[in-house]
Amino acid sequence: MAIREDVLVVGGGIAGATAALAAAESDAKVRLLSHKKSTLRQASGLVDVLGAIPRGGSTDGSGAVSDGAAPADEGSTDQSELVADPLAAIERLPEDHPYRVVGADGIRNGLEIFDDVVGDAYEGGHTDRNALVLTHGGTVKPTARYPQSVAPGLASAEKKTLLVGFAGLTDFDAPAAAAHLDAAGVPFDVDGATVTFPIQFRDDALTTRFAKALDKDQSGVRKRLADVVSEQLDDHERVGFPAMLGDDAGEEVRADLEDRLGAAVFQIPTGPPSLLGMQLEDLLFDALDAAGVRISSGNLAVGYEANDGRIESVLVDQRGNEVPYAAEEFVLATGGLVGKGIDSDRESVTEPVFGCHVPHPEDRYDWSEPAAFGAHAFARFGVVPDGDLRPTDGSGSEEFENLRAAGGVLGGADTAREKSAAGVSLATGAHAGRRAGEEATR
Amino acid sequence: MSKTPSALVLGGGSTGCGIARDLAMRGVDVTLVEKGNLTHGTTGRMHGLLHSGGRYAVSDQKSATECIEENRVLRRIASHCVEMTGGLFVQRPEDDDEYFEEKLQGCRECGIPAEALSAEEAREMEPYLAEDIERAIRVPDGAVDPFRLCVANAADAIEHGARVETHAEVTDVLVEDGEVVGVEVEHASDGGSADGLDSFVHGEPGTTEELYADYVVNATGAWAGQIGEMADVEVAVRPSKGVMTIMNVRQVDTVINRCRPKGDADIVVPHETTCILGTTDEEVEDPEDYPEEGWEVDLMIDTLSELVPMLSEARTIRSFWGVRPLYEPPEVGSEDPTDITRDFFLLDHDERDGLPGMASIVGGKLTTYRMMAEDIADHVCERLGVDAECRTAEEPLPGSEDFSVLRDWMDEFGLRSPVGLRSAERLGSRIDEVLGEWDGPNPTVCECEAVTRAEIQDAISQSGTELNAVRIRTRASMGNCQGAFCCHRMANELVPEYDEPTARDALDDLYQERWKGERHALWGEQLSQAMLKHHLHATTMNRDGDPAATGEEIDFGAFDAGESEGELSDTSGGDRSGDAVADGGRRTRTDETEGDADGDS
Ligand SMILES: Cc1cc2nc3c(=O)[nH]c(=O)nc-3n(C[C@H](O)[C@H](O)[C@H](O)COP(=O)(O)OP(=O)(O)OC[C@H]3O[C@@H](n4cnc5c(N)ncnc54)[C@H](O)[C@@H]3O)c2cc1C
Ligand SMILES: Cc1cc2nc3c(=O)[nH]c(=O)nc-3n(C[C@H](O)[C@H](O)[C@H](O)COP(=O)(O)OP(=O)(O)OC[C@H]3O[C@@H](n4cnc5c(N)ncnc54)[C@H](O)[C@@H]3O)c2cc1C
């Protein structure tokens, strides 16, 4: 029997999950199809909405803000200006930015779905304003939602802070991070200490090993760790560790350490493998289960069947056979260059599943800028949406009547420089999913 | 034929290369012929365990004693081919208690340092060991890189005047007047150059050549019977195949052995960034044509995950098979190949078959290759009337002093070592100075190129804060990820010796320098990588919007301080329609009510 749904979402990242949840609200039958694990396992687990307005550094002018008051800053074209109120700042984004399509309400809708999914596990929902979190590189970053375990470490809370790193963990150097934060002007005293983790792992053990040991309190490690840290504690009011304080039992580990240290304990988000990112992925998939979304993972969508401007089914590769997945409405949420929703070769940039139009400079050397943090065109590669997030062809008309796009696969946003990646995914996922659900059940 | 006594060594595995080196060092005029490349046979398809001898401590104490002796020798003469990981013999609940005691006892009898560990202690060393293990014995097992080892031996032989001829297959053994006088070889017409590997083909491709020598040593391992046939003598090698499965990551850092009498699939050996599971023992007819079966791989994973459960979920990269050159005197008649001794045998065809001029060496292990070579070289010298001492146990192999020497030789033989110690390769004879004296944890800083902290620190001590120079010295940040995961780690290594701003500048320089190079390959997979890197450094770390770098004055008070910190009251927050906080004025919060949610919502 053929597989048939009301709504088929292709892509299992934060955008696809949000779209599926939004579609399911309209009682549509929803299936989510995903090839691999999403970029959440690499992401920090923070949900950025809009943390910075990139200033200059582009050759085509998009993404640049021509603020007449600000003198043209020749030497540092790759600067950004940090933003405290993301919703008010969206009008300063370029016209073709996805936020300009869904607007502030679209962002609110996306965040609402997110807040429902994560419950107490995240904070930040009490305000529209961004929080400044500490990064493992030693500076601050504006973000909109942050895990509960990150909350006690916000940079705007003026508390004397101790950062703790581990001798064998090269990704985070606590004394360097502390000095760096000081240079960034944080309004509190901060010190860093490198300690030896009480259990000897191999020299380059992954963070997961530390986390598991703390989860299980293997060999009394929590107490031993607290003992080592308390030697450095003095009058510090809070203690920050790289995000490896337990996984399944993370909150218990943190409470335990707080108890023993008599100070607040927080985590600093890290790069891959990111426990916080994986935990968010788990929350999203639990919510999808609870909402009755069917999930098919492990197979790649490779093409489609269409008739009269409408997609009838997506073809999924299953051990060499192309199996059609039929639906009324489709959401493309396959991610950007990292998720493989956007592909490229020497000559061109493509969207591999539906062959949607992806504008890009002809000369490959114009895809990037000479400055490492410049306004790279590649960072904004993606499909071009219409006012209802339907991908359009080169002439501006919709590619298909019943296909909408969400998340990293959309072009026009430099989500890395803007600190807007998860926010764009939530806002566009909510819009695309809700619209798909409405259309399919009409 | 030269006036110096001469010998022909057949086979370019560890045994043949070891013999060639030994004889050449004693002044014999040596020619080594190998039908493929060096390590073409079993040596290139083995598990890579540098035995402590523990494995044989109960069943075969002679082998065990030889292993520990040679284990120590190799650490000394071939440190650049060995990684001393240590090993564990792990007992599961269903394994015999008595055997555990016998093992411990046996190790002590053979002079193998052995220490009993509780399950807890063993898991502290190797956290992924199964929950229900009983206990373990710690022994000095290690990992050995057979490719390097062979090349180093061949290189030293050449330096002592030997001729090494690869892609030269022995097609006949020349017998004159009832005595072996040489062999006929066929120089491959396609082999060497076709696989782009070899520059050691001296003979004209596609031709045959007759090579004469005073003595011929048959060191063709599992193929020794075929050479025997050419000379009409029987060499009853019993080739026995074994499978090995390479895992995607290094799940364990110690050699893990199952502590039970004998069995398949009972060892995991960590090699550089991977682990290799092994192995089986099954007699085959033909050392070059035998079935490679899926069940053998399943058996590896299923059985070894009893020791390390996470293996059942882990990804395997590939599997390969090798054939042991087992031998036992025909009168023993073991049914099961696992019962055949791992010891080696020197068959003097004069004494045995009345055919002077040739001996075969069969059996043994890679770990004891040098000792085998010494035995046969003693024998050959005695036959040739050469009076010289063996020096192979004392003289370090080339490259253990200066690795660039061995690297050149590896290139020369077209061999790359998939399980080599890359840092040793980079450091060469400085390895002891750099790694040996390193105190404290030595984590990997650059995973793609496997560069450790000690090496980065060494490079920093020579290049200072110029991380680009550190990169060139160590290759750190030059692998697949183009520094996405390690640029900042390298900069962290500068602290505390240098201050934070210096480290940050060094990072920016390195990052920009890497970017310059990356731009020439920005499409496909590399473009995806570049985007990942952009996300990691701009999104996650906010390096592009870092106020410490941009000099932007941040109004920290305008940002959320957390729910439990209480919201700013509307008045103190002011009119934030101008969302940019770079307004010059730095507001400090005065209304902070610590730990008290003020119910703003
Ligand atoms: C290193 C890194 C750090 C990050 N840090 C942050 C951060 O701090 N804050 C933040 O807000 N965001 C962060 N992000 C961004 C965030 O994780 C997402 O990448 C972004 O929100 C886009 O999400 P997405 O759901 O559109 O795509 P993805 O997460 O890329 O998911 C795409 C999904 O689609 C699947 N897929 C692709 N092609 C096919 C196909 N043909 N058939 C079937 N399935 C397919 C993929 O397998 C994947 O599951 C980070 C990203 C990276 C890479
Ligand atoms: C599965 C397996 C795992 C093992 N694991 C370990 C371990 O962990 N530790 C350990 O110490 N030992 C181990 N061994 C044993 C070890 O690999 C061997 O004992 C050793 O490599 C044998 O070396 P060799 O030089 O005698 O034989 P080989 O390496 O086989 O050398 C013989 C050479 O002769 C060549 N040759 C054959 N016929 C001709 C011809 N007609 N003309 C010219 N050349 C010819 C072949 O091409 C070959 O290169 C293992 C063996 C196997 C099979």
TrEMBL record, chain A:
Domain FAD-dependent oxidoreductase 2 FAD-binding span(s) in chain numbering: 6-423
Stretch forming the signal peptide: none
UniProt keyword terms in alphabetical order: Flavoprotein, FMN, Oxidoreductase
Gene3D superfamilies: FAD/NAD(P)-binding domain
Stretch list, region Disordered: 57-79, 418-442
Superkingdom of the source species: Archaea
Molecular functions (GO terms): glycerol-3-phosphate dehydrogenase (quinone) activity
UniProt cross-references to SUPFAM superfamilies, sorted A to Z: FAD/NAD(P)-binding domain
Entry keyword annotation includes Oxidoreductase: yes
InterPro entries reported for this sequence: FAD-dep_OxRdtase_2_FAD-bd, FAD/NAD-bd_sf, G3P_DH_GlpB_su
One Pfam assignment: FAD_binding_2
EC number(s) on file: 1.1.5.3
Record-linked NCBIfam families: glycerol3P_GlpB (TIGR03378), PRK05329.1-5 (NF003722)
Protein's UniProt name: Glycerol-3-phosphate dehydrogenase subunit GlpB
Automatic annotation (TrEMBL), chain B:
Superkingdom field: Archaea
Record GO terms (molecular function): glycerol-3-phosphate dehydrogenase (quinone) activity
Localization: Cell membrane
Catalytic reaction annotation: a quinone + sn-glycerol 3-phosphate = dihydroxyacetone phosphate + a quinol
Domain BFD-like [2Fe-2S]-binding: 445-495
Cofactor requirement: FMN; FAD
Membrane-related topology note: Peripheral membrane protein
GO cellular component term of the entry, any: plasma membrane
Domain FAD dependent oxidoreductase: residue ranges: 8-369
Keyword Transport: no
EC number of the protein: 1.1.5.3
Keywords: Cell membrane, FAD, Flavoprotein, Membrane, Oxidoreductase
Top EC class for this record: oxidoreductase
Pathway: Polyol metabolism; glycerol degradation via glycerol kinase pathway; glycerone phosphate from sn-glycerol 3-phosphate (anaerobic route): step 1/1
Region listing for Disordered, in residue ranges: 541-601
CDD domains reported in the protein's UniProt record: GlpA-like_Fer2_BFD-like
Family that this chain belongs to: Belongs to the FAD-dependent glycerol-3-phosphate dehydrogenase family.
Complexes and interactors: Composed of a catalytic GlpA/B dimer and of membrane bound GlpC.
Protein's name according to its UniProt entry: glycerol-3-phosphate dehydrogenase
Gene responsible for this protein: glpA
